[in-house]
Amino acid sequence: MRTKNSERGSLRREFIKRASVGAAALLNPALIRANGGELNMYTQEERNGKPRRVIIDTDPGTDDALAVFLALRSPELKVEAITPVAGNVPLSLTLPNALRLVEIAGRTDIPVAAGADRPLKRRLVTAAYAHGENGLGGVQFPEPKVRPVNERAPALIDRIVRDAPGEISIIAIGPLTNLALAFHENPQLPRMLAGITLMGGSLSGGNVTPAAEFNMYVDPEAAQAVFRSGVPITMVGLDATRHAALSEEHISTLEKSSDPVAHAAGQITRAVMNHSRKAGYSSGPVMHDSLAVATFLDPSLVKLQEYYVEIETQGEFTAGETLGYRRAPVRRSAPFEDSAAGESAAETFQPNCKAALDVDAGRFFSLLIGRLTGTQTAVPAGRV
Ligand code: RIB
Ligand code: CA
Q1: CA angle, corner 215, sides to 213 and 217, nearest 5?
Q2: C-alpha span between 212 and 138 (Å, rounded)
Q3: What are the tens digits of pLDDT across the range 4-25?
Q4: How far apart are the C-alpha atoms of 94 and 107, rounded to whole Å?
Q5: In a domain, 384, yes or no
């Protein structure tokens, strides 16, 4: 997706201005069941046992690959679309990688729509050092035969959500550029979403800088817009995902499987494990994105805590930091001498997300490996 630079520039400036206002959109209570003031997703009973409809926004990406496979292997989900974004590697790779994933899984019925090829306001910083030059650990899968749909990701997201207000959730496992663009182009969208479960952020230090986790680091302005949108957010950050590293046994189980999805997952994670070993790391590939999908499937897998999270966008060294407040006052930095009268601290605590602080790793891997190898179809113990 490319727009003229001048158009992008004015779009971005306008969007940043609007997003910086940051007033959380009033959610339409009719769309989301309120329960004692806490916004909840629809429960299974309210969906009459129907699969939960999701859009996966992703930057495949080695851990994205296993996350997408897990979603496609979960009968509780109906994946309505996959929307690649630039992140781990450029869009020119995340797009065909997403197409490869639906082909490997035999799900070419799912529309794949190209998203943003760069962040809203910054130059793209990729993570090929961690995901390989091709984004899949260097494993060579055949060129995809299936084509992307002829629709931009923000437009596809808007169309699907608008056709089913309150029914669609987003599972976002890359930089949040596509979502932020969709919200900018369609201001009504946040009110129509059931919720967002995202992999990103950290309340205990980053993995790109000491402050910022990669998905937030790449596009802090997009993340700020999403966290200020008013949509109920479940933030699955490094606080939980850093405890979700695959073991040699997990990888070996995947490699030995005759299931094409499991075998592909085994090839990818073996490549990452070999790269980690060569780089002197002892732990295995961390399944950041799969834990976001698993948390959507079964929130009881993680320990969730309500936070008010703001995204740092001005820091020379801290842009992309997810700053979590557990109580009021929500203070800003001390005002400069020459700045306008500083905004007073927010005296009331209004959480904008539930953050995952820990994980039951044993249950998580049982779900992940079991579903990828086709040996675990039981619905997880939690609320789905
Ligand atoms: O920080 C981890 C996140 O950044 C994961 O989504 C990984 O795929 C990378 O995008
Ligand atoms: Ca990712």
Answers
A1: 60
A2: 26
A3: 555 555 545 555 554 444 444 4
A4: 17
A5: no
| 288 annotated active-site | yes
Each residue's pLDDT tens digit, 92-144: 999 999 999 999 999 999 999 999 999 999 999 999 988 889 999 999 999 99
In a domain, 383, yes or no: no
Task: Answer yes or no: is 52 within a domain.
Answer: yes
Domain that holds residue 215: 4-328+344-377
Distance 290 CA to ligand 2 centre (A): 9
Residue to substitute in 57, 58, 215 for testing ligand 1 pocket (most ligand atoms within 8 angstroms of CB): 215
Ligand 1 shell residues, CB under 6 Å: 59, 61, 63-64, 87-88, 127, 173-174, 199, 207, 213-215, 288-289
Which tokens in the block code for residue 60? 């495949």
> pTM for the whole thing?
0.88
List the shell of residues around ion ligand 2, using CB closer than 5 Å: 59, 61, 64, 173-174, 289
The domain that holds 358 is classified in CATH as: 3.90.245.10
Flag whether 336 is in a domain: no
Check if the beta carbon of residue 376 is closer than 8 Å to that of residue 302: no
